[in-house]
Please model this.
Amino acid sequence: MHELSVVFSIIRTVEEVARENHVSDVASVTIRLGEVSTVIPHYLTDCWNWAVKRTEILRHAELRIEQIPAVTWCCGCSREYPTVTYGKICPYCGSRDTFLVRGNEFLIQEIEAE
Amino acid sequence: MGDYRIIEVKQDILADNDRDAAELRREMKRQGTFLLNLMSSPGAGKTTTLVRTIRMLRDELKIGIMEADIDSDVDARTIAGTGVRAIQLHTGGMCHLDAAMTRQGIEELGTEDLDLVVLENVGNLVCPAEFDTGAARNIMILSVPEGDDKPLKYPLMFQISDVVLINKCDVLPVFDDFSREAVTERIRMRNPDCEIFFVSARTGEGFEAWIDWLRRETAAFQKKEDDHA
Model:
């Protein structure tokens, strides 16, 4: 729902990094996106394609999204399970004493520049 | 085809906002103003809850209110009717407030002399949970007609809230499939330390416990400030 404001935030950061590295044309930006980060990849790409045309440095930049599957750890039986399938309750032992190990990442991994 | 080089960034996309929020929290702590971020769906009773809360506390605490809405100043006018300082923030279509917008509101309101400031966030159970506003505590309102399954459907909102007010308890006899026990268990599953109060902003039922919590927490927040000074 707030993908556009997030895109503006990515653009601001990449513009800063580009300036620091004396880059005038960014070819691609790679994002690492967790499965339960609440950001929808294809909305993000749509907003990206609209927004970068309005910039100088990122005009030709492609957005690459690396998705990270969400994994939850159970403190009850010390096992991992896929978060999206089973949610908060451990499918092996029924414990609720669980926490998300990975899957809510939302990082700018790297940029590729000429 | 030119040569391409890779520049590693590895930066959290919400890091800017988290930094701004932490800075705002430090400043509010220094000046002893307890800032609350109030969230709920549209129509859960944020403004009605605020009006009753203000009436019960305005003689003992200096209160300020920031109303965020996509448009209109209906809520700010209602709040201004209680005599406390209030401003309207227009989010310009945005679905949430972030720390930078909160700071603008704080500056416009002028909070140095205030004990308690409440930021009424945009009515939405999804996006406001994603962005730290810089408030000391997150408060959310779930109203009975919305159903006791909402903690299952909007887990992040319940996970980040320090207090959940279950509002409109006066209509429980009509919405008799809403279970107090089920909603409590579902909130605690996400957030074991969450304070839960069953209230009705219309009748005042259950408000004493909520007001006591506010009184106690505001005093504790301001006292710690003195200890550091």
User: Anything to note?
Assistant: The interface with chain B takes residues 1-2, 5-6, 9-10, 12-14, 17, 21, 23, 27, 31, 38, 88, 96, 106-114 of chain A (CB under 8 Å). Residues 3-70+102-113 of chain A form a domain with the hypothetical protein PF0899 fold fold (CATH 3.30.2320.50). The beta strands of chain A are 26-34, 62-68, 71-74, 79-82, 98-102, 106-113. The radius of gyration of chain A is 18 Å.
